[in-house]
Amino acid sequence: MTFEIIMIVSLCLLTLSILANIYRVVKGPSSADRIQALDAIGINLIASIAVFSVLLHTHAFFDLILLIGILSFVGTVAFARFTERGMVIKQKDEG
Questions:
Q1: Which residue among 39, 59, 71, 87 has the highest number of C-beta atoms inside a 10 angstrom radius?
Q2: Is pLDDT larger for residue 74 or for residue 28?
Q3: Where would you find the membrane-spanning parts of this chain (predicted)?
Q4: What angle (nearest 5°) sits at the alpha carbon of residue 42, between those of residues 20 and 47?
């Protein structure tokens, strides 16, 4: 019984953390802060799904955790490149 209560409390705290990061994405003073908050949202979402999976005693969400982790990493790299270079993929010069 106490294990379920701990899991539910941790889900609530992770939800509050996601909401705080959403606020930082909207109000962030710089684009670097926004990128960092988006990455933190991805990490908190992965943790929330993992806790939810443990709470339901199932392995069905592990593929979803892997997919969100990969997409979060690729998104963070793409945003970082965009802020650094102004473009995500460098096009070849014709000539």
A1: 39
A2: 74
A3: 6-26, 38-58, 64-82
A4: 90
Q: Where are the domains of the chain?
A: 2-85
Q: 67, 49 in Cβ contact below 8 A? A: no
Nearest-angstrom CA–CA distance, 45 and 51? 10
* 31-56 helix and 62-85 helix, angle to the nearest 10 degrees: 180
What mean pLDDT comes out for the span 71-79?
Answer: 89
Q: What pLDDT digit, counting tens, does each position of 11-20 carry?
A: 999 999 999 9
